[in-house]
Amino acid sequence: MNDILCPTNLTTASESALRWASAIATGSGQGITLLHVLEKHERHGDLTELKARVVAQAERFAGGINVRKEFPEGDPLKGIIAGSSQGHSLMVAGTHGPRGLRQSLFGADILKLVRHVAVPSLVVQADSPAPVVRRILLPVAGHKDISTLLDAVCLLARGFGAEVQVFQVMRPGEDPSAQLVKNKAAMTARFQAEKIPHREANVPSTVFSIGFAEQTIRYAQESGMDIIAIMAKASDEYRWIADAEKERLLMNGAHIPVLCAI
Question: Is residue 183 part of a domain?
Fold first, then answer.
């Protein structure tokens, strides 16, 4: 399909996701698959009315874009994961944050979702700003393979004409690992090769924290970043604190969308 997968549960969070999916589709020349997984209680209700609401959502937030509507049956988490393997280039999903409607999927379990889908994911919140992307913040990751994340960052940077800032927190007396150094060089080389505007942001540590999420969010907010790009799974270096750090980024209080890859 080579289009954008956008799960919907017909809430404000999924409306925000569809706005972002529409902007990305416009910039990249792609279509959208709007996916609503029919749970048991919905299959015994008025499907005509429910499907009409999905169609109305597509017309309101993705007018002029080719939108496929799909209604598989089953568990929402499993249905979205299965749908992500059908040739999409990206998933855009909404979250209500740690509390709110449908917390089991679109809230606390959003980290589980982005770690199991087959494509990179852009997670937006119900209160995320309008889809205008001028700057993407890319923290240096210590993973052995960051190619899928770089592919996704380049897709969005090209589509929006955005600048990428390669971000690293510099802690006094702490030398970066060989993998971090290697990945930072690979990021820079990729952006140079694709002529994507970029620069390094090496920031002294100013936050007393075991991880890097708090300072990353603070820098992103203060510097006007429109997206933060991260690896969804933990690296070997920070596996023991990864879940809390990833969740803090995904549900950040600044409502900045987060691009994830595995």
Answer: yes
